[in-house]
Amino acid sequence: MSKLDSDGTVETETLEPVPDIENQLEQIVDSMNRARQEIQRVIIGQDQVVDQSLITLLAGGHALMVGVPGLGKTLLVETLGRVLGLDEMRIQFTPDLMPADILGSEVLEEGDDGKRHFRFIKGPVFTQLLMGDEINRASPRTQSALLQAMQEGRVSIAGEYHRLPQPFHVLATQNPIEQEGTYPLPEAQLDRFLAQINIEYPDSASEREIILATTGVSRAQADRVLTSEKLRDAQKLVRHVPVGDSVVEAILTLVRSARPESSPLELVQRHVAWGPGPRASQALMLAVRARAVLDGRLAPSVDDVIALAKPVLQHRMALSFSARSEGVTLQDVVGGLTEQLR
Description:
Blueprint: E1 2-4, E2 10-12, H1 21-42, H2 47-58, E3 63-66, H3 73-84, E4 88-92, H4 99-103, E5 104-110, E6 116-122, E7 129-133, H5 140-143, H6 147-152, E8 154-157, E9 160-163, E10 169-174, H7 187-190, E11 195-198, H8 204-214, H9 228-238, H10 245-257, H11 266-271, E12 272-274, H12 278-294, H13 302-313, E13 318-319, H14 321-326, H15 330-339
Parallel strand pairs: 3-10, 3-11, 4-7, 7-10
Antiparallel strand pairs: 1-2, 5-6, 8-9, 12-13
Keywords: ATP-binding, Nucleotide-binding
Protein name: MoxR-like ATPase
Domain AAA+ ATPase: 59-203
């Protein structure tokens, strides 16, 4: 685990043993269960999406939410911020958005003594929960402004480092059907997202409940369950959750099998252009720990690896031309990868 020193350099932080870890984990389980219930009062019919969002935040990562308009992506982010006690900001990405609109900029001011000096005005990235709405509508230059923030928790302006609030999470949304006027996210930025969360249409019963609950005189409001400090403590504690050798081997087998250069699977060799790097293994290790805690277990299992394979891997892989011509999807490839773990 790393932290920023006062001079802006990155130092390695050693995780010390936690006394009475079982009791502390039980408290986290109780808090996260209450958080889940509060969110589900507002976000109806998207239980899996809610769980994957909480797993991502508990693991200390960022999420890319992909879904058509009107499925509650913005409402979900607002509700997460309220329930988890996080300061939140929203950026609407557009083609004319500039990096300074996200990070902030320096302005020249004149003091009472007549001397001029620069003053840094912070941008919306200086928050704990940043929603990037339709992130693929911004130019690559603007998209890349988030790279350092997402990876290091700091930004560099005019050669000076500025530390972001902690915890810091980016929840970005992307519309999969409107591609005109969009810029695909570069691979380096996609890799910074711990998970890609696909938001599908609700089933009939859930949609009925949605229209009845949201078109009346009043709407359900979620209550705050955690504070940012408690969430930060929970994220640190998740890293202490023990992981068995079988789970570690499952993660390694899954990720390495997804690379066409080293995969024993013909499906991957034929249809994958490039596969996930070591950051995918790191993401899976943190995510399976978080999922176990969210489910009230003190250790993850191989089933956690299988359940999280799709959200962690799908945005870190690219299909070859032969796959597209034959109608093979990334879901097919990830499904084939997880079959070897069953």
